[in-house]
Design goal:
Blueprint: H1 13-18, E1 19-28, E2 32-39, E3 45-52, H2 60-73, E4 82-87, E5 91-97, E6 102-103, H3 104-110, H4 116-135, E7 138-139, E8 148-150, E9 159-161, E10 168-169, H5 189-192, H6 200-215, H7 225-234, H8 241-244, H9 249-258, H10 269-272, H11 277-280, H12 288-294, H13 297-319
Antiparallel strand pairs: 1-2, 2-3, 3-5, 4-5, 6-8, 7-10, 8-9
Helix pairs in contact: 4-6, 6-9, 7-13
Length: about 325
Amino acid sequence: NHLVSNTPIPNLIELESRYKVTNNVLGVGSFAIVKECTDKVTGESYALKIISKKVIKQGKEDMLTTELDILKKIQHENLVKLHDLYETKEGVYIVTDLARGGELFNQLLLKGSYTEKDAANLVHQMLKGVAYLHEQDIVHRDLKPENLLFKTKLDDSMLMITDFGLSKILKTNDDVLMTACGTPGYVAPEVLSQKGYNKPVDLWSVGVITYTMLCGYPPFYGENQAGLLQSIIAGKYDYEEDDWGEISDDAKDLIDSLLCYDPLKRITAKEALKHNWFISAAADVNLIDNVRKNLSPKDTFKRAVLLVQGVNRLQKLSRNRQQTDNDKQEIF
């Protein structure tokens, strides 16, 4: 079965002549392992994702094909970029940017100083990536902090969006998607209500991430997975004075525009990039103590439990309805 090309290469001589594959394992999944590799000519380091065809589940192949179609199509500084692609009878080998800087929230917690201006700069980069995807008629569908990686460990590092496994290329600009997918906590209410959705779901996710970046906890929560999803469907959130007293009205205005319940009235990525917050955000109030206090490991663990339970609920939702957007793949 050919996933990438009609003529898979017989062996990896071509890959190994160009790249030195290291033993540094960057990640392991159910059907893939990611290692660091180095271009022998330039010395540049990349991430090499090795996907075993033997263990890739039926249905996951569609996700991989979509992800590769998207990686081939996109070219933007705030999106992880495809550099090379090889296929043998046994596996698929994907060479992409190596993001050495780590995940968004992990890096924020290491900062000595972190102001509204810093947050605005990161949200702006995120929105630039989303605006580009939407111009290409691609909906990401799984924007969350774990999929936002820093290119380097430097303070002014570029932020990059990654993981296009759940993304969808729209057939037309107003194509309606139905599949319940995404990550609980970041998923838009219209996905849960099963009435169909489109690009605005990504802006909702950006709204949740922005809110969390400024105070250290998410706008929607519940004692259990049903409570969390109910909280999102209700769409109600607030700004606690203790945590939001020093944060500007412009920041709250942008969040309100991103978390607008009606997807038709929700701000677009292009519009959001012009928001006043990106000009006015204050550089003098250090938010790090508050964010660090609220993003405590205990909370992170609790959220992880909710997340797993919520994923199960989303799977159930997806199975319980007739999928009409040709997303026949298993989602998680």
